[in-house]
Design brief:
The complex is a heterodimer of chains A (260) and B (188). The relative contact order of chain A is 0.09. In chain A, 46% of the residues lie in helices and 20% in strands. A seven-stranded antiparallel β-sheet of chain A has the order 1-2-3-4-7-6-5, sandwiched between helices. Chain A has ten helices and seven strands. In chain A, helix 3 crosses helix 4. Chain B contains nine helices and no strands. In chain B, helix 2 crosses helix 3, helix 3 crosses helix 4 and helix 8 crosses helix 9. The chains are: A alpha+beta (260), B mainly alpha (188). The interface between A and B is large, with 48 and 54 residues.
């Protein structure tokens, strides 16, 4: 083997990707060639630097939690049907008390309102901590709304109700669970508010928690000190998140829902 | 080299479950961080990767390992983002095509090789960041322990192309690191 033969094969040699005969020839060449030995040492040093010194980033726990929420959508429906087939005779056999406890536990863990609110709050927090929170700075709704064209497969309304005190800050495209979302940012009395707008098809939407006379059909939740109001309009889901108090946020949501 | 301990492909036996895909979240996030150079964008990219994986789960290419399939999705999602922003990954700052080193200048002597061994994490990450997105990706996939065939699946190219891209990328990275090591020597 010549130096020209050996150099391109050094990495393959290190990765064990050449056959035994060629490997023996290469080793033999290395024993008698200082230049190729230094080239080999350089390959080895680079491997070592990349393996031991290059920072390796682990996915944040909050991201992993969001990813695991997506998992239920990947499982074939047969799994749930099979579970139901097993559970149904057990319920019929009179172990309803025990099974009821199990089901209550499942219901808590799979509460659609808690899941949607948790996702909305995580998205809100990510907006708050981003160095560059907006992809489009606000010059008003007529600047922000057209910006979404071509970036989403729906056209979100970007309402700024008169007299609401809301100030539109900007927008971005993000994710809500497994779908793209318009992320619209407002401020009100120095509080930050995030409105997420996303397609609602296929989403487990929470049942109404209270009956309201007239007005939009809102779902409300509080987690980790944040309040979340959810509503649907025109095939789109909306999630409004802030640390404003619940009554104030509901009032804002009613006004935004009227314009969405 | 001590390759990163990539999870064995769960689909080598029974059909993979979504939980198996979650086992690759750290490795995917690591690549995303090095591509985007930004924690928030990396999170978005990984979330988009899994969202796409969920949608395509039933039509997954059974010929590729689960890990290679997920990395391919992440890579395509990354390229889509650049196209959406009307930029090419190859035109980004610091993403100029990697010029092949003109000679074995980095082999001047053993002293410089020794200095190279003294480089710190920040310098190595910075040097990697100066490579094109293409070169960065192929180097990181190699570090991750993927075979050439798997890398070819991720990048959507031939195995021979992977070989030449990897060699060129590593040569460019060595040259950058040698420059840092040389500067370190002239400062001291």
């Amino acid at each position: 083997m010549t130096c020209e033969d050996v150099r391109p094969r050094l990495l393959d040699h290190r990765r064990g990707r050449i056959d035994a005969a060629a490997d023996a020839d290469l080793r033999s060449h290395l024993r008698g060639c200082d230049a190729c030995t230094r080239a080999y040492a350089a390959e080895a040093t680079l491997d070592e630097l990349l393996a031991r010194r290059l920072p390796r980033y682990a996915a944040p726990t909050a991201l992993k939690k969001r990813l695991s929420l997506l998992g239920s959508r990947a499982r074939p429906p047969a799994h749930r049907a099979a579970w139901m087939r097993v559970a149904a005779p057990a319920l019929a056999a009179g172990v309803a008390l025990f099974a009821g406890g199990v089901l209550a536990g499942r219901a808590t863990r799979h509460d659609p309102l808690a899941a949607l609110a948790g996702e909305a709050i995580s998205d809100h927090l990510r907006v708050l901590v981003r160095d560059r929170p907006f992809d489009v700075e606000s010059g008003g709704p007529h600047q922000v709304k057209p910006w979404f064209a071509g970036r989403l497969d729906f056209a979100p309304a970007v309402p700024v109700p008169e007299g609401s005190g809301l100030e539109l800050q900007g927008g971005a495209v993000g994710w809500f669970l497994d779908r793209r979302a318009a992320v619209i940012e407002y401020t009100l009395h120095k509080h930050r508010l995030t409105l997420l707008v996303f397609r609602d098809d296929g989403l487990a939407w929470p049942a109404a928690t209270q009956v309201r006379g007239g007005g939009p059909d809102l779902r409300e939740a509080t987690q980790r000190g944040f309040h979340v109001v959810l509503w649907r309009a025109g095939g789109l889901g909306h999630a409004l998140v802030s640390d404003l108090n619940a009554a104030e946020l509901r009032e804002v949501a009613v006004k935004l829902a009227a314009g969405s | 080299m001590i390759p990163m301990s990539r999870m064995p492909s769960p689909d080598e036996g029974a059909a993979p479950r979504f939980e198996d895909a979650l086992a690759h979240a750290d490795a995917l996030y690591n690549l995303a961080r090095h591509l985007t150079r930004n924690a928030a964008d990396a999170e978005d990219l990984v979330q988009e990767t899994y969202a796409r994986a969920v949608r395509a789960w039933g039509v997954r290419d059974a010929g590729a390992s689960l890990a290679a399939w997920l990395f391919r999705i992440l890579r395509n999602a990354w390229l889509d983002r650049w196209r959406r922003d009307r930029r090419s990954p190859l035109d980004a700052d610091g993403d100029a095509p990697d010029a092949a080193p003109s000679s074995d200048a980095w082999l001047r002597n053993d002293v410089e090789l020794e200095r190279m061994r003294g480089l710190v994490a920040e310098e190595i990450e910075t040097a990697l960041g100066t490579l094109s997105e293409d070169a960065r990706t192929v180097v990181l996939l190699d570090v991750e322990g993927f075979t050439e065939t798997e890398v070819a699946h991720v990048l959507g190219c031939a195995v021979g192309t992977v070989k030449s891209r990897l060699a060129r990328a590593r040569a460019a990275l060595r040259a950058r690191l040698a420059e840092y090591a040389h500067d370190m020597g002239t400062r001291s």
